[in-house]
Write a structure and sequence with these properties.
alpha+beta, 60s Ribosomal Protein L30, Chain: A, five-stranded mixed β-sheet, 2 helices, 10 strands, globular
Length: about 160
Amino acid sequence: MSTAIGEYYLFPSTLFAETLPHQVKTILGSCVAVCLFDQVLHHGGINHYMLPWWNGNGMPSPKYGDIAIERLIEKMIFLGSKKGNLVAKIFGGANQLTYGKLEDTVGERNIVTAEKMLSEHGIRIIGRNTGGEIGRQIIFHTQTNQVFMKYLQSTELKRAI
């Protein structure tokens, strides 16, 4: 049996889910990434969305949190997962723009979207590093559910949760 771990860079407005072990890297500012992990099958997936809700205009895209989360859940189920076996970690949602109240920022609305959508699907959030004013780089290990994170102003990579 091979112990090789694939590497994947996740661009904004995309998602990744696979049964084989991967480490998936992405960079987040006001965007949010939702990491889903199947506690029974030991595989996972991640999305990276930019805006909270699709407004119905144009094509539904994983650029929007509601679409990205639905599609990630669907992909995990396609790979054999059951919703009851899924847990989530969420990252990002920094307030990188200084206008308006905190609850009005894109980052905060992206965080609320993740919380609401996951709750509606009965998926428990077991870890998070969200909000603030600094972007993050994360590396999600799909087979172990470990996430390593560093703030973009820092050079130190540490285990987040």
